[in-house]
């Protein structure tokens, strides 16, 4: 994949963000399944945001539900970057901050130390300082959410904004957590930690 093609794809997504107007998918440039090219586009977007003053505070994992993976024809999650200005914990989210928002219940893990080197389950558990019920508002710069795997990876794993909610009790098993999302008092969805691999 040429550098020019990667740059063109990144520019398309940046323009959609800056103009607040969703764009055509980028798979016509990088292909629908080229993981390397998609993450190269994401890296350019990350660099641009950092150059504009963005501060990386974490990472997100998307496509952790097998049903959603099947919809996109993949068998793996995708990964994105979280910036400080994406955190709307305890404050309203302005509609203008997003293009095509969708809300998902999540479990967020706040690390007390970086994860580096060879990792074991125990190493990861020790690194987690606390966990929270959370809401992720995913967003897509791609018009009408017409995404392939490469489109969502390139678009920072469709990251939008997030809200950290109540802290979960220490030692809770994330796979056993049950979450219910309500809208105006009506149940919109219910899920379990096991739904997210």
In short:
It is built from six helices and seven strands; from the N terminus they run αααβαββαβαβββ.
Describe this structure in words.
This protein has 197 residues and is α+β, with helices and mostly antiparallel strands. Helices cover 29% and strands 27% of the residues. The protein has a three-stranded antiparallel beta sheet. A hairpin with a 2-residue loop joins β6 and β7. The longest helix is centred in the N-terminal third of the chain and has 17 residues. The relative contact order is 0.20.
Radius of gyration: 17 Å
**What's the β-strand tally?**
7
Spans with pLDDT under 50 lasting ≥5 residues? none
Strand order of the largest sheet: 3-4-5
Please work out how many helical segments DSSP would assign. 6
Q: What distance separates the N and C termini?
A: 32 Å
DSSP helix fraction:
25-40%
Mean pLDDT: 94
Key words describing this protein structure:
197 residues, alpha+beta, 3-stranded antiparallel sheet, two-stranded antiparallel ribbon, 6 helices, 7 strands, globular
List the SSEs and their pairings.
Elements: H1 3-19, H2 27-30, H3 35-51, E1 56-62, H4 66-72, E2 78-83, E3 102-111, H5 121-127, E4 128-138, H6 149-154, E5 161-167, E6 178-183, E7 186-192
Antiparallel strand pairs: 1-2, 3-4, 4-5, 6-7
Helix pairs in contact: 1-3
């Amino acid at each position: 994949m040429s550098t020019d093609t990667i740059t063109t794809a990144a520019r398309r997504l940046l323009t959609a963000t800056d103009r607040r107007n969703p764009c055509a998918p980028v798979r016509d440039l990088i292909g629908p399944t080229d993981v390397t090219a998609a993450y190269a586009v994401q890296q350019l977007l990350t660099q641009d945001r950092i150059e504009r003053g963005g501060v990386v505070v974490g990472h997100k994992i998307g496509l952790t539900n097998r049903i959603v993976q099947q919809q996109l024809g993949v068998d793996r999650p995708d990964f994105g970057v979280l910036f400080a200005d994406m955190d709307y914990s305890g404050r309203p989210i302005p509609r203008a901050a997003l293009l095509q928002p969708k809300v998902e219940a999540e479990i967020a893990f706040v690390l007390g130390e970086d994860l580096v080197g060879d990792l074991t389950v125990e190493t990861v558990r020790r690194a987690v300082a606390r966990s929270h019920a959370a809401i992720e508002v995913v967003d897509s710069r791609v018009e009408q959410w017409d995404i392939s795997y490469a489109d969502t990876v390139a678009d920072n794993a469709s990251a939008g904004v997030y809200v950290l909610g109540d802290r979960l009790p220490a030692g809770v098993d994330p796979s056993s957590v049950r979450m219910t999302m309500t809208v105006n008092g009506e149940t919109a969805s219910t899920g379990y930690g096991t739904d997210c691999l």
